[in-house]
UniProtKB/TrEMBL annotation:
GO terms for molecular function: phosphoribosylglycinamide formyltransferase activity. (6R)-10-formyltetrahydrofolate binds at R73, N115. It comes from Ktedonosporobacter rubrisoli. The keyword Zinc-finger does not apply. GO terms for cellular component: cytoplasm. The record marks D170 as: Raises pKa of active site His. The gene is purN. Gene3D superfamilies: Formyl transferase, N-terminal domain. GO terms for biological process: 'de novo' IMP biosynthetic process. InterPro entries: Formyl_transf_N (IPR002376), Formyl_transf_N_sf (IPR036477), GART (IPR004607). Keywords: Purine biosynthesis, Transferase. This is Phosphoribosylglycinamide formyltransferase. The keyword Ribonucleoprotein does not apply. N(1)-(5-phospho-beta-D-ribosyl)glycinamide binds at G22, S23, N24.
């Protein structure tokens, strides 16, 4: 028998971690304010940069927002763990967060840290190549400047992936992903901007998927 009951989801108190403009944080705020993420709320925004515009976005929407200096990783991670526990965070969303966490930090939040990465990452996160929808085999661009890496490699398709964070950088299992074609005349900025347009719905979808995962 079919019912009209909505799919069960778990509640999600989100911490969103940013290092820069925070347009993906904004996408989450907009989705929450337009009821696209029932059961979710942003309880904390953290930036490792004092002047990150993401902090301003959070404050405009009256969200708790903190600058956490990141000079000594072990100390900063300890402070972050305390904050995440204090705010009873269920899911940590890395939305343009440009710092690498230690394995010790990650192990404290199994399947509770997701990262938005501006390139295509395979389903299980591993491997050096990815087969795109048109059958072409492209390298997996991990780490910094993924859009630049795609342009330099001369590939025709790149994209963005939301994946679980594991100790190996940009190599955790995928939650969702979308391709972005590379166009003639693309510069790094133009490509990065088109990737971001896709990411603004991808990050919302990722939180929805996470909430539906038992
Ligand atoms: C996004 O494109 C995200 O994929 C990327 O930073 C941008 C942040 O944009 N993340 C990484 O490169 C992580 N290695 P935003 O600050 O406007 O949301």
């Amino acid at each position: 028998m079919q019912t009209d009951r909505p799919e069960a989801t778990k509640p999600a108190r989100l911490a969103v971690l940013v290092s820069g403009s925070g347009s993906n944080l904004q996408a989450l705020i907009d989705a929450l304010e337009s009821q696209q993420l029932p059961g979710a709320q942003i309880v904390l925004v953290v930036s490792n940069k004092a002047d990150a515009y993401g902090l301003q976005r959070a404050l405009k929407h009256r969200l708790p927002a903190l600058y956490l200096p990141w000079k000594q990783r072990a100390q900063s991670e300890q402070q972050l763990v305390a904050l995440l526990r204090l705010f009873e965070v269920d899911l940590i969303v890395l939305a343009g967060w440009m710092r690498i966490f230690s394995a010790e930090f990650i192990e404290q939040f199994p399947r509770r840290i997701i990262n938005l990465h501006p390139a295509l990452i395979p389903d299980d996160g591993s491997g050096a190549t990815f087969t795109s929808s048109d059958g072409s085999i492209i390298p997996v661009f991990r780490g910094m400047h993924a859009a630049r890496q795609a342009l330099e490699a001369g590939v025709k398709i790149t994209g963005s992936t939301v994946h679980y964070v594991t100790p190996e950088v940009d190599a955790g299992p995928m939650l969702c992903r979308q391709e972005v074609p590379i166009l003639t005349g693309d510069t790094e900025d133009k490509l990065q901007e088109r990737i971001k347009q896709v990411e603004h719905s991808l990050i919302v979808e990722a939180v929805q998927l996470w909430m539906r995962t038992a």
